[in-house]
């Protein structure tokens, strides 16, 4: 139902300082509108003004709280492979290491219990002798004392302070890594957070004897740089 148009304008046009109100008043003089239509029209105008202001003055995006180095993709050289071995087994199992290790773009270190009697070939990673563990107590009758040395490979690898490392990868001297696949998987995770990546053993007996929640070294496991730094500080106290 329409109402009779008043002789007075619906909007005061005496204040011509606002062009929008002035032209709106002019338009309403020639259009018969119900109160509800007037309300709808005002809402549309208000929405149009709001959208105009939003697009006219877009918000400046917040700066990302990450460095350029963190944004760069994870590559092979960001991984440090730490191989737990011994002077007796390393020469026999070096052929496994040659399957995945390339001196040009793979960073790896072999941790042995003592020095080798002969030099290492050019296609093998450098070797270091693990630290002395005789001061650590060991009372487990069904195990090997060398487990202490192998466990401390984590600390010794981190304490080397190698530059540009994002992930520490650990395995045995007969573990065969598919390096590019491993890089692809680890690149999905933030190395600045605590990550422990691996899998339990394919042997049910091994899982039952040790732990279903432990990543076995035979298949290899990886820890992020930030987690490695924390573990290196407390590992010896866990072994005492």
Automatic annotation (TrEMBL):
Record carries keyword Transferase: yes
GO cellular component: endomembrane system; membrane
A GO molecular-function annotation: glycosyltransferase activity
Topology class, membrane: Single-pass membrane protein; Single-pass type II membrane protein
Major location (coarse): membrane
Domain of life where this protein originates: Eukaryota
Pfam families to which the protein is assigned, alphabetical: Fringe
Cellular compartment(s): Endomembrane system; Membrane
Keywords assigned by UniProt, alphabetized: Glycosyltransferase, Membrane, Signal-anchor, Transferase, Transmembrane, Transmembrane helix
Gene3D superfamilies from the UniProt entry: 3.90.550.50
Domain Fringe-like glycosyltransferase: 160-231
Annotated protein name in UniProt: Fringe-like glycosyltransferase domain-containing protein
Organism: Gossypium aridum
